[in-house]
Amino acid sequence: MRNIAFTIILISSILLSYFLFREILFKSESNPMTFELTAGLIGVIVTTLITFLLLNKQTNAELKKEENIMFLDLKAKIYTELMAQIQDILTKGQVKEIDRIEIKILNQKIAFIASEDVLEAFNEFSALFSQIARSADVTDEEEHLLFESLSKVSVAIREDLLHHKFDKIDKNRVRELVVSSNRNFE
């Protein structure tokens, strides 16, 4: 709608400027004062159009920037929640069925905001967690492996929050990683 209105205003302004300019230039009995006024009017029209274009681009850039900030904030909140829930699960010393379900839910939460690298790292973590979850108690070695895998998730999250690679995300690969992470619990 905005583009249509802008196009109509632009075409109208160009046509009006053309007819005014043509009338003044090709009219033989034109007064020099009329020519000056017409040139000033055309200048005002052109200046207004340029200002309108620049303000429109600036507004779009500001909206995009605000959208990116909100998305980054959402990512940070979900990643923080992810780490808090993993912390709760790992500090228990035992893995119950509810913990496996929580990891599956976490996988779904991060699926709609995470980069491919985060999903890959979380997929590895969830596979290891699922394997360890089959035995009720977590040994020191298993805990070490979990934290090592969790470190990879943390690094991937850090990269995701600091370096946006939205245009490089392979949607099919992301989908495969999310599904694969869920299959780890089966």
3D architecture notes:
There is one protein chain. With 186 residues, this protein is mostly helical. It folds into two domains: 61 residues; 115 residues. The chain is 83% helix and 0% strand. It is built from six helices and no strands. Helix 3 runs antiparallel to helix 4 and helix 4 packs antiparallel against helix 5. The longest helix is centred in the first third of the chain and has 60 residues. The two termini are 50 Å apart.
Question: What are its keywords?
Answer:
186 residues; mainly alpha; 2 domains; 6 helices; rod-shaped
Largest pleated sheet: none
N-to-C order of helices and strands: HHHHHH
Helix content: over 70%
Mean pLDDT: 78
Rounded to the nearest angstrom, the distance between the terminal CA atoms is 50 Å
Q: How large is the share of residues in beta strands?
A: under 5%
Alpha-carbon Rg, integer: 30 Å
* Helix run count: 6
**How many strand segments?**
0
Which term fits the overall shape? Answer: rod-shaped
Structural class: mainly alpha
Instruction: List the uncertain runs.
Output: none
Q: How many domains in all?
A: 2
Write the layout of secondary structure elements.
Blueprint (H helix, E strand, L loop, with lengths): L1 H25 L5 H60 L5 H15 L4 H18 L6 H23 L8 H13 L3
Helix pairs in contact: 1-2, 2-3, 3-4, 3-6, 4-5, 4-6
TL;DR of this structure?
The mean pLDDT is 78. This protein is mainly α and 186 residues long. Helix 1 runs antiparallel to helix 2 and helix 4 packs parallel to helix 6.
